[in-house]
Design a protein that fits this description.
The structure is a single chain. With 96 residues, the protein is mainly beta. 6% of the residues lie in helices and 62% in strands. Strands 1-2-3-7-6-5-4 form a seven-stranded antiparallel β-sheet, with no helix packed on it. It is globular.
Length: 96
């Protein structure tokens, strides 16, 4: 039984994640892959840095011209990290 999870953001740029049965991840809107090994892949997307974690991870396809990335393996987590700095409440109050 295959489970598919999709996330799409069209208002911030073309970005889509499709996870099929926790075995294959397809992402669009990928501009670069910073690092990768069998347990962690770090990719830059139009929504920020995306870290993919799992076991036996393998990049099957990466095309930065079209922004497509395909990963196979046992995928356990996908985490976004914003690239934009955030101001804290105290700093915000000081620089009003």
């Amino acid at each position: 039984m295959a489970m598919t999870i999709q996330e799409e953001r069209t208002n911030t740029g073309e970005h889509r994640l499709t996870l099929d049965g926790r075995k294959q991840l397809t992402a669009t809107g990928v501009s670069n892959v910073d690092s990768f090994d069998e347990e962690t892949i770090v990719a830059y997307t139009s929504l920020g840095e995306l870290t993919i974690r799992g076991q036996g991870l393998k990049i099957n396809r990466l095309n930065v011209e079209t922004g497509e990335l395909t990963v196979d393996g046992d995928i356990s987590a996908m985490v976004y990290t914003d690239n934009q700095p955030r101001s804290t409440g105290l700093l915000k109050k000081l620089f009003r």
